[in-house]
Structures are given as C-alpha cells and as structure tokens.
Design a protein that fits this description.
The protein is an alpha/beta fold and 246 residues long. The protein has seven helices and 14 strands. 21% of the residues lie in helices and 29% in strands. It has a seven-stranded mixed β-sheet with strand order 6-5-4-3-2-1-14. A seven-stranded mixed β-sheet has the order 7-8-9-10-11-12-13. Bound molecules: zinc ion.
C-alpha cells in the first residue's frame, strides 16, 4: 500500500487566481490528513476529496496563509451536521503554545483542537508524527510523517537551519519551502531560497525533493534551478493534484 501525497496549493502569502497557499493532502489506507489550511485550500481540496472524508488536519503555525480556511471548514462541518449528515468530529492538530489561536480550533463540537509540542510524537491515524521547531517570525513546527520505514518531511516555514538536516535524514520525500529568490536570501527573514532547500535535501540524503510555498512574483523556475544546482536527486516544483507515491 502506497502512502500518497497530493499538493493542494503551493503559494506563499496568498494564492494566485484560482490557486491555494501551500497545503498537502496525505492518504494511506483510506485515512486522509491535510497539512495546513490557508487561503484557497478549501476550494482546491474539493477537487480531490469530499470535505466530509477528511479525517484530520495538522497545522504547522498560525500565519494566515496556513490557517485562513479553517473557519470555513468549520462551517462546512456545521452545515453537514444541520443537514442531518454529520461527519465525525474533526481533530485539528496544531501548536499548543499559542493558546489564543489554539482555542479557536475547537468549534461547536464539530472540530476539536489537539495541542502538539515540539517534543511530542503523536499518532494521527496510520501516521507517526514528530516535530522540529523552525526559525520563523512566529512559533512554527516542521513535521515528519512516518509509516514503518517510510518517511516524508515537511520543513514548514523556516529560515535555513542545520537542525533540519538530522530531522530530514534519509527521508523518502522532502517537501521544502522555497519562498525566496537567491538575491533575497539573508534579507527576507523566516524563509529559504531554492539553493537552501537543495542544500538541505543533499545534506540530509533524501530521495526526492518537492518545492513549495513559492513567491507570486518573478519566475519560480529560477528557484527550481537554484535547488537543482545543489541537489542532484529528483527535484520539482510541487504540482497541484499530482499524486506522489511512496
Ligand atoms: Zn509563516
């Protein structure tokens, strides 16, 4: 049985017309977990999964481009409930450190926040999930999803930091943010450029690299080329709707 990863959106900050901010759907043996739920995600997700089939959500941090659609998702669960077709209560796993944002994840017994911390190892359906704090203007957690020997690592939003190398070691797939053009590395805080995503993939010895959380300005192919110069393994800009199998 394959673990499937479907990109739902790839943009950082706000979505392109008809697009969505960075988000990924994981599926294994019929269990569906969404990583991040920012602007445009709810619309895009429905191309791949009926909303009532979603089993869990995992949020890396509380910036708007990662949580903007949570409120509408909660409404969808409430409306289904009033229609007499209630889906099970949806757990939303997210950093507990920011209590003001965390309490909003529980809504009318339709969704419930489940707090996670960087030292936790949690079981979400078939997925064993561990965390690594990133360098970002707000508290943010990189995520490692494991099923047996297989692993997928999401950097979430972060500046370059060596701590991510052991965290991503030997992953079957690294999904890295690459929000910066090379000229902006070191100037714009809290994010990485393509060369840094490539360096992380190379030093961690991962088998495959996907780039996400891309800027809306400029030519994102330059970011891909910067990554490819560092990392010789399979590398691409995450393609919305494509099914990546592990
Ligand atoms: Zn962010």
């Amino acid at each position: 049985m394959n673990l499937q990863i479907i990109p739902i959106g790839i943009w950082g900050g706000y979505p392109k017309a008809g697009g969505a901010t960075s988000s990924f759907l994981l599926e294994y043996e019929g269990f569906h977990c969404l990583i991040d739920c920012g602007s445009g995600v709810l619309a895009s997700l429905q191309n791949y999964l009926p909303l009532e089939k979603l089993d869990a959500i995992l949020l890396t941090h509380y910036h708007a481009d990662h949580i903007a659609d949570i409120g509408s998702l909660q409404y969808s669960r409430l409306i289904q409930y009033h229609l007499g077709e209630p889906a099970p209560v949806l757990p939303i796993y997210a950093p507990i450190l920011d209590t003001e944002n965390f309490i909003k994840l529980s809504y009318k017994e339709r969704t419930v926040g489940v707090g996670v911390s960087e030292e936790d190892i949690v079981q979400i359906g078939p997925f064993t999930v561990s965390f690594c704090p990133t360098i970002h203007p707000v508290y943010c957690l990189a995520i490692k999803i494991e099923i047996g020997e297989r692993s997928v690592v999401f950097t979430a939003d972060t500046e370059w930091q060596p701590k991510l190398i052991p965290f991503a070691q030997d992953a079957d797939l690294l999904v890295s943010e690459a929000n910066l053009y090379e000229k902006h590395i070191g100037i714009a805080p809290g994010h990485m450029g393509g060369s840094e995503a490539g360096k992380l993939a190379k030093l961690a010895g991962v088998k495959r690299l996907l780039l996400t959380h891309l800027p809306l300005h400029g030519e994102v192919d330059e970011i891909l080329q910067a990554a490819v110069r560092q990392y010789k393994g399979a590398t691409e800009i995450a393609q919305v709707g494509k099914v990546y199998k592990i």
